[in-house]
Every structure is written in structure tokens, then in C-alpha cells.
């Protein structure tokens, strides 16, 4: 079903993508801690929880059957299969946060980013890069959570993810965490003052000037 493109405001919608191990989650959590206007969309997934993950906090964990039912009902703004598991973003959750003037972050892959752009063409895409592929592999191996087979699959998927780098207007190289965080926060701040996000306020100001 073709969806009519929507305007984003009053809040901004950010799509952050990266290969596994690039530091996307760490950067996002740090940004959320510094900017109370930001909100993180909690994805729905069929994968098993990792140690320390809580349902409803890090992800909404569901069965494949439940996920399929939600897909069929049109509950997802975007959905994709990643590393053999399914992930989806709640449509209603995003709309509610944007309407409340929150700036919403989606941590999704390039497939989901393409779907989001079709519905919200004014969304802002940010791609996080590791400083080198060797560093990426080292980070994945250093997690200690995945088998060699899973790591190999993630490395292969990272190569595919990197092929879609040019689809994102902003790219941050995560070599120094503090510098990368500052750059990410700058992107958020710049998007906030776009005309598309301030159109109502600007219209009221212009009208007041003309009636002086």
C-alpha cells in the first residue's frame, strides 16, 4: 500500500544507521542523556534478549508470529530482516512523539531508512562510521556475546551496509567518542532550526511584523 508522504513537525525525525560495532547505540544513549528534547523509538524485534536487556526498555521482544500479525495490521512505520531476525518501528509511537514536539531517534538499518524516507521525506539521516574496518572487527569480537558464526555474518552485513553510505546526508566517523558525540548533537541542533520545523512559529512572527 502506497503511503502519502507526511510532514515531520513540530518535532524532528532522525534516522541513525551504522554497521554493527560502529558505536551507534553508545552515541545515541549519550545524546539522549544530554538533550531532554530527544526521544528514542523502541523497536519491536523477534530476536532473543541479550544479557541486561529489558523488554519495553531496550526492545519490545515478540514472537515471529506476533511480529507477522503486527506487520499485516500496518502497525509498523518500517520493518526489515537483519542478521536473521525481524525488527520494526511503531507507527503510532513515532506520530505521538513528533506531535508532542519531541525529536525522535530511530536506530535502524539502511532498509528501514529507505522506508522511512518514503513516508517522512524530511527526516534526517545520519550514518555512523568506524575509523577502519579492522577496528570494526575488533569491536565485534570484543563484545564476547556472539559466536564466530554470528560475528562473520555481522561483518558481511557491515560490508553491505557501507554500500548505502551515500544515501545519508550526514556521516560521522566515530574515532574519538567525545568528538563524534559533539558532531551528532550539532546535527540535532541544526535540524531543529530548519524552516520546516519552525514554519508555524515563523508564520506567526511574520504576520506580527506586517501588522505593526
From TrEMBL:
Q: Give the record's family classification.
A: Belongs to the guanylate kinase family.
Q: Which SMART domains match?
A: GuKc
PROSITE patterns registered for this protein in UniProt: GUANYLATE_KINASE_1, GUANYLATE_KINASE_2
Into which EC class is this enzyme placed? transferase
Per the entry, what this protein does is:
Essential for recycling GMP and indirectly, cGMP.
What GO cellular component entries does it have? Answer: cytosol
Catalytic activity as recorded in UniProt? GMP + ATP = GDP + ADP
Keyword annotations from UniProtKB, A to Z: ATP-binding, Cytoplasm, Kinase, Nucleotide-binding, Transferase
Q: Which GO terms describe its molecular function?
A: ATP binding; GMP kinase activity
Provide the protein name. Guanylate kinase
What's the EC number here?
Answer: 2.7.4.8
| CDD domains xref list | GMPK
Predominant subcellular localization, coarse grouping:
cytoplasm
User: One Pfam family name from the record?
Assistant: Guanylate_kin
Where does this protein reside within or beyond the cell?
Cytoplasm
Q: Where does ATP bind?
A: 18-25
Natural source organism: Fluviibacter phosphoraccumulans
Amino acid at each position: 500500500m502506497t503511503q502519502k508522504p507526511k510532514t515531520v513537525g513540530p518535532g524532528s525525525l532522525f534516522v541513525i544507521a551504522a554497521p554493527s560495532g560502529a558505536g551507534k547505540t553508545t552515541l545515541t544513549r549519550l545524546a539522549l542523556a544530554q538533550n531532554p528534547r530527544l526521544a528514542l523509538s523502541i523497536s519491536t524485534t523477534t530476536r532473543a534478549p541479550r544479557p541486561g536487556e529489558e523488554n519495553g526498555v531496550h526492545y519490545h521482544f515478540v514472537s515471529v508470529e506476533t511480529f507477522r500479525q503486527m506487520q499485516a495490521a500496518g502497525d509498523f512505520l518500517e520493518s526489515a530482516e537483519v542478521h536473521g531476525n525481524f525488527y520494526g518501528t511503531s507507527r503510532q509511537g513515532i506520530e505521538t512523539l513528533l506531535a508532542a514536539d519531541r525529536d525522535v531517534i530511530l536506530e535502524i538499518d539502511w532498509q528501514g531508512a529507505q522506508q522511512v524516507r518514503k513516508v517522512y521525506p524530511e527526516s534526517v539521516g545520519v550514518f555512523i562510521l568506524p575509523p577502519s574496518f579492522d577496528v570494526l572487527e575488533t569491536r565485534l569480537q570484543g563484545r564476547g556475546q556472539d559466536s564466530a558464526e554470528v560475528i562473520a555474518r555481522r561483518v558481511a552485513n557491515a560490508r553491505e551496509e557501507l554500500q548505502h553510505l551515500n544515501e545519508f546526508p550526514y556521516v560521522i566517523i566515530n574515532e574519538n567518542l567525545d568528538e563524534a558525540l559533539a558532531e551528532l548533537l550539532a546535527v540535532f541542533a541544526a535540524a531543529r532550526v530548519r524552516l520546516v520545523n519552525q514554519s508555524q512559529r515563523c508564520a506567526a512572527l511574520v504576520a506580527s511584523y506586517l501588522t505593526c
